[in-house]
Design a protein that fits this description.
Blueprint (H helix, E strand, L loop, with lengths): L11 H26 L3 H23 L4
Helix pairs in contact: 1-2
Amino acid sequence: MKDKNNKKMMNKNTVLGWATLIMVIMGILLIALGIFKYQEVAGYGFTAVGIGFLANAWVFNALKGRV
């Protein structure tokens, strides 16, 4: 007798994993924008925000399994 409502639920670790992946992708895109598209002062801001995204993703990855 299998349950008809056997749906895969997202737990906290899965949510943190997806958030980490999205933040890594956004961080890399922002760094790439800062390096290749905006090579003047605005590029420094894009690159700094991209590095911040990567740092935040690192923290989310470290939290997996502990929350």
